[in-house]
Amino acid sequence: MLALPRGLEKKISDLKKIKGKGWDRELEKAIDIMLAESLLLSASPNQERTEEQAIEEASKAVKAYRASRKKGKSV
């Protein structure tokens, strides 16, 4: 599982304070992009990824992160 970059949770909480329609979707898109970039930059030389593969992996990581956050809140 991919860990979120340091400080991202603080940024997320700051963004949640902002009121307005659609902020959560914009945040999700931003997280997807950051994780995809992180995966592209940290790929091992032996493992070549296309941008689509990195974005798909980032989306899976984001979904897993969101599920873990929801699970933590419901407990």
UniProtKB/TrEMBL annotation:
It comes from Meiothermus taiwanensis. This is Uncharacterized protein.
